[in-house]
Write a structure and sequence with these properties.
12 helices; mainly alpha
């Protein structure tokens, strides 16, 4: 079945109704009819979070439905392009490349070409020199002798280049990264990105709702594993 043209309004293949009708009912009633309509997060943010999980977990079969939804929810094609590129660094090159192969027919069907993906006149976001130097100093002290090449690339490419690219705002990159980290159970890295998100304007209420939303896409256990980190970060900040 070609899922890019799936006739079902919930994007589910016929196999779900034929094999697990209760799953279809939960999808319609609880997920799409409930969670996606909760006001604590915009549908645009929910689209970014969902796509990040699917790319990070290489669940590309579900991408066409959610890419269409994202574009309908005011996510720009350039932002989707930036999301996939960003996740190459956080979930691996192969996952990102696999995502491009699934997303490309959706772009073609909707008439989205190269011009919609480029931001030639956009300036990179300004670098927080003090914050990045502090982060780099800590990382260099901990891992500089063990993996100097990785530490240097993290400094020069990840945080001084990728995070500043204009396709996604720093706030959106935080949402994408946190979603990827939770989806791949890399909770040791989560506290840093939660603090970064709060510093870039993501509210506690939005992070709380992110955890609720993502449970449906990465699973309850991965979210409950992450909740302890979220709790510690919230309790450790004065704001």
């Amino acid at each position: 079945m070609d899922h890019t043209d799936c006739p079902s309004p919930n994007g589910l293949p016929d196999s779900v109704r034929l094999v697990a009708p209760s799953l279809e009912a939960y999808t319609d009633r609880v997920l799409l009819g409930g969670v996606w309509k909760r006001p604590q997060l915009s549908v645009r943010d929910r689209s970014l979070i969902t796509l990040s999980v699917l790319v990070a977990r290489n669940q590309s079969e579900r991408l066409p439905y959610y890419v269409d939804m994202a574009l309908d929810n005011d996510v720009k094609a350039s932002e989707l392009s930036g999301l996939i590129t960003h996740l190459a660094f956080y979930s691996g090159w192969a996952n990102a490349i696999a995502a491009t192969e699934i997303v490309q027919p959706v772009f073609a069907r909707r008439g989205i070409g190269a011009a919609a993906l480029a931001t030639p006149d956009a300036e990179p976001f300004p670098l927080d020199q003090t914050g990045e130097q502090r982060r780099h100093t800590v990382t260099s002290r901990k891992f500089g002798e063990l993996a100097p090449g990785l530490v240097q690339l993290t400094h020069e490419v990840l945080f001084q280049d990728l995070w500043l690219q204009p396709e996604l705002t720093p706030r959106d990159r935080c949402l994408v990264t946190i979603s990827s980290v939770i989806a791949t159970a890399q909770t040791a890295q989560l506290a840093f990105y939660l603090n970064r998100a709060l510093d870039h304007g993501v509210t506690r209420a939005e992070l709380s709702e992110l955890m609720t939303h993502i449970a449906f896409y990465s699973g309850w256990s991965s979210v409950f594993t992450a909740l302890g980190v979220v709790k510690d970060v919230f309790e450790g900040r004065p704001d």
